[in-house]
Write a structure and sequence with these properties.
The protein is mainly α and 256 residues long. The chain has one domain (3-253). The chain has eight helices and four strands; from the N terminus they run E-H-H-H-E-H-E-E-H-H-H-H. The strands form two sheets. The chain has a two-stranded antiparallel ribbon. The two termini are 19 Å apart. The mean pLDDT is 79.
Length: 256
């Protein structure tokens, strides 16, 4: 079969298919509830930025069926990478949801900028903190770099969803869920101990009714514990980002 460069329009379509799969799942503020045209424009803008990566693609000259297969493969690869990014972003949300119940902020809600719905204060704060940490660690730049390099390491039409890729995503999602519990466990444990302490004092001496103070005490304690646990959580998240980078590399290497 002859090997020849595909046209610029075909290369742009291939690049757009891979990028749009990622953009469809990345949890950017306001993107999930935005007009679909906004997401299409964002995917086009990223595709244009990555022009040097896909403009010189050299693949076997495809027919109509070949183009359909390549576009389907590229979209599947983009969605798989998007699922990995989505799993990484759920770490702080999971930790915030677990701590929100025990900290006493269940009735306090705010607007989640990602989907414009009511959300607890603690999950929202931890989600924003996670976004700041991710930007500080350069996760966004790493994703862009992997997308650009993927056009060479994983040529269009060669990626097929395999047991290794599905298992890798599932394993990574489980690790991120476990990491969220690890972030929340110290805070939740301290708050439970505060409840037990107040209940024990009230039980020993019925004249001392401290349970009425549990609500403000737990709120103050949770704020203090949040400030203490944030640096530790950022360190744990840095290790998760390293696993995320290894996962992306394995997705692009193990499918040839």
């Amino acid at each position: 079969m002859d090997i020849e460069p595909i046209t610029v329009l075909e290369a742009a379509g291939i690049g757009f298919a891979r990028v749009s799969g990622i953009v469809s799942l990345v949890p950017l503020p306001g993107l999930q509830s935005a007009n679909p045209i906004a997401r299409i424009v964002l995917a086009l803008a990223i595709t244009v930025v990555l022009v040097p990566c896909w403009i010189r693609l050299v693949i076997p000259a495809p027919g109509v069926s070949g183009i359909i297969w390549i576009l389907s493969s590229e979209a599947a690869l983009g969605i798989t990478i998007g699922l990995a990014v989505l799993s990484l972003s759920e770490v702080f949300i999971t930790a915030g949801q677990i701590m929100n119940i025990q900290a006493g902020f269940t009735y306090a809600t705010t607007i989640d900028p990602t989907n414009q719905t009511d959300s607890g204060i603690v999950p929202m704060l931890w989600q924003l903190f996670g976004a700041v940490v991710a930007l500080g660690l350069g996760v966004d730049r790493a994703v862009f770099r992997v997308i650009g390099e993927s056009f060479q390491t994983c040529p269009p039409g060669t990626w097929i969803a395999s047991i290794q890729s599905v298992g890798g995503i599932a394993s990574f999602s489980g690790q991120m869920l476990s990491l969220g519990f690890r972030m929340a466990l110290p805070v939740v444990t301290c708050l439970v101990l505060i409840d037990l302490l107040l209940a024990s004092v009230t039980r020993v001496s019925s004249a001392i009714q401290l349970l009425s103070l549990s609500f403000p005490v737990k709120i103050l304690a949770s704020l203090l514990l949040f400030s203490i646990s944030l640096p530790v959580s950022a360190t744990l998240f840095q290790g998760a980002c390293e696993k995320f980078g290894h996962l992306l590399q394995s997705l692009l290497v193990a499918v040839h």
